[in-house]
Amino acid sequence: MEAAATSQVSRPAPLIIELDPPKGSNLQPFLATALNLRGRVQGIRVTDNEHAIMRMAPLAPCLALQEKGFVPVMVINGRDRNRLSFQSDLLCAAALGITGIVIKEGHDPREGDQPLARTSGDLNLETMLTCASRLNNGKDLSGEDLDGATDFFIDVCLDLSDEASRNREMAASFSKLRDLGVQAVTLGPTYDLTIIEQFLPAAEQTGIKVRTSLLYLKSVTMIRYLNNLPGVPSIPQEFQKKMMQAPDKKMAGLQVAADFLRELQPLSDAVVLVSLGWKDRLPEFLNLIER
After folding, report:
1. Assigned domain for 53 exists
2. How far apart are the first and last CA of the chain?
3. Range of the domain at 262
4. Which distant-in-sequence residues (6+ apart) come within 8 Å of 246 by Cβ?
5. Is residue 7 part of a domain?
6. CA distance readout (Å), 136 to 77, 131, 152, 184, 189
7. pLDDT in tens, 179-215
8. With helix as H, strand as E and coil as C, how does the chain read?
9. Is the Flavoprotein keyword given for this protein (predicted)?
10. How many domains, in total, are found in the chain?
11. Phi, psi angles (nearest 5°) of residue 100
């Protein structure tokens, strides 16, 4: 499972990095990136066709990481599966020793590089969580006994672009997640601390861990683009101003992310560095935050 924070209050929240599998069969560049991060981050998540971009399935990269001594966490989405394949893939992961999973609904295929792809339409978030919970209890979704239960640490991604998910009754929502076997939630990227703070009382009440996500802002143009996307949490004007006023434009986005990380960490059991835009500059960012 992903590393948890120690009892030392002064220690910063663990960093978890998302890594995309290769778009092809060559795993060597993926493994080289992971090996360069050894000891600098406390967890590695392997994404599952993130942003609807076709890549290798996460299972093989997770197994390759295990062989190098890592304890990877596998992201799995419901967009590309029905309830049969979802359960089968989870059983396969468990048989190979993968114990950490992150459940996501998945982006719309029209956003990715295979816009003609169709979703199965068979799985919503509650069904996926029910599947994982029952597998942990030695049953399949239909209630049939399994020859060997799973032992997953279940994390679920909550999409902050869903206005309803932010405004619903948090305590009831988190209680339901806990009853479905969820042990942690990962909040989608936002630079608005007030959004994150809405989730904290319910998380503390239910004992569910909260992981926040940090997105590297490449440019002022990127901020404007994100702020014009319907339903996406707006990036506060102060961050756009910081980037515009920064003397070193190349470093501006990294410095803004580093400064915001300091604000995120006290609110988080861990901070997830999302895959979009991080791969090439991640070592530079880790140097900046002295990791």
Report:
1. yes
2. 21
3. 15-288
4. 252, 255, 256
5. no
6. 18, 9, 7, 16, 29
7. 999 999 999 899 999 999 999 999 999 999 999 999 8
8. CCCCCCCCCCCCCCEEEEECCCCCCCCHHHHHHHHHCCCCCCEEEECCCHHHCCCCCCHHHHHHHHHCCCCCEEEEECCCCCHHHHHHHHHHHHHCCCCEEEEECCCCHHHCCCCCCCCCCCCCHHHHHHHHHHHHCCECCCCCECCCCCCCEEEEEECCCCHHHHHCCHHHHHHHHHHCCCCEEEECCCCCHHHHHCCHHHHHHHCCEEEEEECCCCCHHHHHHHHCCCCCCCCCHHHHHHHHHCCCHHHHHHHHHHHHHHHHHHHCCEEEECCCCCHHHHHHHHHHCCC
9. yes
10. 1
11. -115, 130
Q: What is the pTM assigned to this prediction? A: 0.89
The pLDDT confidence band at residue 152, using thresholds 50, 70 and 90, is very high
Output the domain CATH number for residue 209: 3.20.20.220
CA distances from 73 to 10, 11, 66, 112, 259 (A): 26, 23, 10, 23, 27
Planar angle of CA 114, 115, 120, nearest 5 degrees: 90
6 occurs within a structural domain? no
Both structure tokens of 37: 């991060």
Map tokens 């978890």 to a residue: 16
Distance of CA 142 to the CA centre of its chain: 28
Q: Considering only CA atoms, which of 113, 126, 111, 107 is closest in space to residue 188? A: 107
